[in-house]
Amino acid sequence: MTTSYDVIIVGGGVIGSSIAFHLAKKKRKVLLVEKDRIGCEASSAAAGMLGAQAEITEAGPLYDMAQTSRSLFPAISEELKECSGIDIHLVRKGLLKVARSEDEGNELKRLISFYQKQGQRAEWLSIEELIEKEPNLSRDLAGAMYLPDDGHVLAPELTFAFARAASILGVCLREYTTTTGVIIQNDRIIGIETNVGNFYSDTVVVTSGVWSGMLLQQTGLHLPLYPVKGECFSLLYSASPITATVISEGCYIVPKQRGRLIVGATMAEGQYDKKVTLKGIRDLLTISETILPNIVEGEWEKAWAGLRPQTPDGLPYMGKHPEIEGLFIAAGHFRNGILLSPITGRWMTELIEGERQEETLQPFRVDRYSKTLITR
Ligand code: FAD
Ligand code: GLY
């Protein structure tokens, strides 16, 4: 069994899989280890929205990163289809953020002017214009903000496509392989310990989602990450009752292929369990019915939950370990890991290859909570 690699990646979610794909394109010999199945955690639970505007409502590094990543999707979708045979079903039919009151409408109008100042497309739709666009939405709404450039993909397919394309390009994928520790010699990474033995490399990337901080405790790095459980359900219709994604306070409805709707998602902080509760489903159904009254006519498909990896300031961690040479981290993409996966894969690969200066990722530094660094 080969045990030496150019790069080892720990965690087969969308972030680890994207980095594996980008490194494989550089012809690096890569091992990706996943404790369970590829994409089995947050990355398969996601609704797949590319909400670069809808979900990020203030200027800053995350906003810029999200815009750039969204713009990569048309090309990455083609590339992944060609390389892996998997269609990630990129849909670019825009997103409607609906207002249920005049106050919510005024807040959305403020956001519209913010986006327009940023050079992005955004427009206000009166209730008449909204109903003309989406006739099944409730006439009790106060209007909506229309974001034509926010789209969506199938999140599990995106993760599998990155992983399969990486594998076709030579990456070794090892599922059911749990990393129990990193191996360090003279402040340099030399490999990882797993339940099936040790693997060696002078470059290790931790992409273990909400579990990344636990794995790195051994290195003395304090990397705060908190789970925020999200529950979703899906419904089937003979024809989709909406064409664009619809978001409201506390709920979103995403129209997928063949008349399928995903309704999400609850926000339960600090919960590591992935149980779906009746309360969660009831809360989502209550809100979604006020937006789309005939949603209740859908056929029940299924419900699920996943754990979003949240950081204290809402920014992901991307960069080098401050003390251990060769150890890299990309985690904490919270509500936007699907959207941010192409750019994360590209930037982390450039950093690992020495093609990108660490300073360019300054806002995402992994040691920004380093005042709480503990001694190894
Ligand atoms: P994960 O997908 O959690 O992957 C980490 C992987 O590491 C897991 O597979 C895990 O098994 C593995 N692992 C952990 N520890 C170890 C170990 N010791 N050894 C080996 N492997 C290990 N984002 C969007 O952009 N758009 C959306 O619409 C969207 N909707 C969402 C809806 C819900 C309900 C949820 C929960 C999330 C949503 N997100 C969305 C957020 C997105 O899913 C996450 O940000 C993203 O999936 C994080 O990816 P990741 O690879 O960092 O983590
Ligand atoms: N981005 C959607 C969610 O986190 O639920």
Automatic annotation (TrEMBL):
Record has RNA-binding as a keyword: no
Classification via Pfam families: DAO
Catalytic reaction(s) noted: glycine + O2 + H2O = glyoxylate + H2O2 + NH4(+)
Cross-referenced Gene3D superfamilies: D-Amino Acid Oxidase, subunit A, domain 2, FAD/NAD(P)-binding domain
E.C. number(s) listed in UniProt: 1.4.3.19
GO BP of this protein: thiamine biosynthetic process; thiamine diphosphate biosynthetic process
Protein name: glycine oxidase
Organism from which the protein derives: Bacillus methanolicus (strain MGA3 / ATCC 53907)
